[in-house]
Amino acid sequence: MWGASVAMRRREFMSLVGAATAFPVLARAQDRPPFVGVLTGNVAGDPGAQMRVDAFQQGLTDRGWIANQNYRLEVRWPGPNPARQQLEALELIAAGPDVLLSTSTGTTRALRDATQRIPIVFVGLSDPIGTGLVANLARPTGNLTGFSLYEHSMSGKWLGLLKDMVPGLNHAALLFNPESSPYAPFYLQAAHQMENRLGLKVTGASVRSGAEIAAAIGTATRDGGGLVVLPDGGFFGTQSAMTIALLTQRRVPAIFAVRFYAVNGGLMSYGADLTQQFRDGAGYVDRILRGTEIRSLPVQFATRFELVINMKAANALGLTVPSRLLMDAELIE
Question: Which Pfam family, just one, is annotated for this protein (predicted)?
Fold first, then answer.
């Protein structure tokens, strides 16, 4: 009888050990489910940002994590303002998450500055080495890893595609918000290196409001120039409808880094699948929740890029799409 009792207790103990191995976060906090915190660089109501957060949540669902059933999910929407991001980062960390997801350079910095203990998975970043967030892509040394969209040399590719679309173009400005896009100077530096090859004069257009965007478009109109809308860290989403309408009205050609804007009326975009990076981020979060050490998860760059051309926008601007672009692009009618 005593032997049977010991055997039963041993089976119960081994069962608990197995559960702790599969779900170490659960083992650390038996009194609550795992807690995943998300700090976006966007404001609530940004439809593109909400779509991407939904993709992240679906990625977790596909891996067996059901929000409010076997894990807790909290999403914060501070927008692109750095002070607001820092405040919400502190509040989110005070709530005790087990893993964090950040969606911009600004929110990643805010979380990194607030905790060196909780694992942080970032998605959609521009060159995290160039911006000083990580020092080693293959084996991150801190509590940060994740997925990056672009190296800064991508600005040359955007300019080249814009020049292909508008061969007579001789001036282009890189549009960015200096607060939400602290990496913009790196893109601008790379763009200047392409000026002679492309026959373009390149300038930077620093904007912080819708009025300043309108002024930059006005300048492009007077100069007969075009715009490259850089990855924006959350600022551009709420300004995009106004900007795209004004670009069409003023007949200013522009290329975007994010597909969403070309699909919703912008002339063209070239970039990686940002939504897929949110799904990939869910994969890293899942692995961390199941016990993988964050330092064993390398930083990954996007490897597939897509060109999208909005034919209605091209026609409105009086542009004929070159055949070499037609062959490579997804066309939005």
Answer: ABC_sub_bind
Instruction: Kindly state whether residues 268 and 183 are assigned to the same domain.
Output: yes
Give the 3-state secondary structure of residue 140: coil
Q: How many CB atoms lie within 10 A of CB 55?
A: 20
Same domain, 42 and 86: yes
For 40-99, what is each residue's pLDDT tens digit? 999 998 888 999 999 999 999 999 999 999 999 999 999 989 999 999 999 999 999 999
Closest to 243 (Cα-Cα) out of 12, 252, 234: 252
Point out which residues pair with 227 in neighbouring strands: 173, 254
Write out the two tokens for 69. Answer: 């059933």
Q: Are residues 97 and 160 in the same domain?
A: no
* Global model pTM greater than 0.70: yes
- Looking only at the bridges linking them, the beta strands covering 268-272 and 305-310 are antiparallel
138 DSSP assignment:
S
Name the token pair of 91.
Answer: 């509040």
Same domain? For 326 and 212 the reply is: yes
Environment class of residue 81 by beta-carbon count within 10 Å: exposed (0-12), middle (13-18) or buried (19+)? middle
How far are the Cα atoms of 64, 154, 165, 195 from residue 253, in angstroms, in the given order? 45, 18, 9, 18
Closest residue by Cα to residue 153 from 183, 109, 108, 121: 183
Distance CA 282, CA 262 (A): 26
Tokens of 299: 């930083």
Assess whether 166 and 268 both reside in one domain. Answer: yes
Residue 162 and residue 90 share a domain: no
Determine the distance from the C-alpha atom of residue 75 to the mean position of all C-alpha atoms in its chain, rounded to a whole number. Answer: 15
